[in-house]
């Protein structure tokens, strides 16, 4: 087995070509294609061509939010770290994660909820347009659905890609009915890497 | 579709039970089982039951290294952030990532290599036992193989789980022949989340 001789700068381009080749005959909306391809690029998992679901006009709405300098709130530090900061900063936006905050731990303890759910409450206090990116905790999506219905938060976009086995599938179905623009990976799969990849695909549409 | 009523503290336990049920008749070495289950827990991808490969006696060697306070060097900040710090600190270890270091960018530029490859060179300067965890860049594994052969580094363990389409499969086959203890996800799949999950599964064996 021989290594291919690909220059560092060309690795991503070559990867995207391979992904496009292997997607083959699958017809995908060109607007969504770069997002789907970037998620496959980060996971090597072609299931996402089938499982990623987009609400009507969500890409345009997401790009509008980013242009307004939206704050991306993630449910893990991994997702937050994975988001392309130079690109986001160029748009005047920022990425934050409240999971390690002392007041979040306290809120969760008092409410008997998860810290991820408490993070969504803290997200209600963020000023300006907000994008919620959930790559880990279904409890964050369930709480977000409640907060939206209570009128406490109105995100420009929710990226709903938690991963796992308990209430993950259900939480995604719930958030798709909440009435906010969404990009969701239906089923069990997802992750912080997938959440960051979707954010980055959107950011790159505006900055590359 | 109804949400299951599972207490926050019980979500992981219930997830692991579901994973064990669905692994079904697959016979797995008990020593490796908790590592495989944690990777599936972090990815919801049962492929890893088949693709994760372990060198002889690697788990025992890895635990010895962690007990000696090994430094885990990752190739992404995402993997570094995902490693359980309270557990690792309890063992006297630490996790580091050199990807954002100015001298690494410079080395890479001079050598015409990737920053990930330059990170492996910097890893040679780490004092004490070292564990290398690669969740992203195949070029890190290829360079590591060279550095081991040149006698410049002798890791206690390499976690080789880069993800992608260009030289990823090949880099894993190379590192499995280098002669150092390894845990490798053969094939294209892997990721920073998988690298962190393997580290955490090992850490939890000693601290939970």
From TrEMBL, chains A, B:
Enzyme class: isomerase
Record-linked Pfam families: CbiC
Gene3D superfamilies, per the entry: Cobalamin biosynthesis CobH/CbiC, precorrin-8X methylmutase
GO terms (BP aspect): cobalamin biosynthetic process
GO function terms (MF aspect): precorrin-8X methylmutase activity
Functional pathway: Cofactor biosynthesis; adenosylcobalamin biosynthesis
Domain of life: Bacteria
Family, similarity comment: Belongs to the CobH/CbiC family.
Name listed for the protein in its UniProt record: Precorrin-8X methylmutase
Source organism: Phascolarctobacterium faecium
Gene: cbiC
């Amino acid at each position: 087995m021989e290594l291919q001789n690909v220059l560092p700068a060309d690795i991503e381009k070559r990867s995207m070509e391979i992904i496009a080749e292997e997607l083959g005959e699958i017809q995908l909306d060109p607007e969504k294609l770069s997002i789907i391809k970037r998620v496959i690029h980060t996971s090597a998992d072609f299931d996402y061509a089938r499982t990623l679901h987009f609400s009507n006009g969500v890409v345009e709405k997401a790009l509008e939010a980013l242009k307004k300098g939206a704050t991306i709130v993630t449910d893990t530090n991994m997702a937050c770290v994975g988001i392309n900061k130079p690109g986001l900063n160029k748009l005047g936006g920022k990425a934050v994660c409240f999971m390690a905050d002392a007041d979040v731990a306290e809120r969760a303890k008092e409410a008997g909820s998860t810290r991820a759910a408490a993070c969504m409450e803290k997200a209600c206090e963020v000023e300006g347009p907000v994008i919620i990116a959930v790559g880990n905790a279904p409890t964050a999506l369930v709480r977000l659905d409640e907060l939206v219905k209570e009128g406490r938060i109105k995100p420009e976009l929710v990226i709903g890609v938690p991963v796992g086995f308990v209430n993950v599938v259900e939480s995604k179905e719930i958030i798709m009915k909440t009435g906010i623009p969404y990009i969701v990976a239906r089923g069990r799969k997802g992750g912080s890497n997938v959440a960051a990849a979707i954010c980055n695909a959107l950011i790159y549409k505006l900055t590359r």
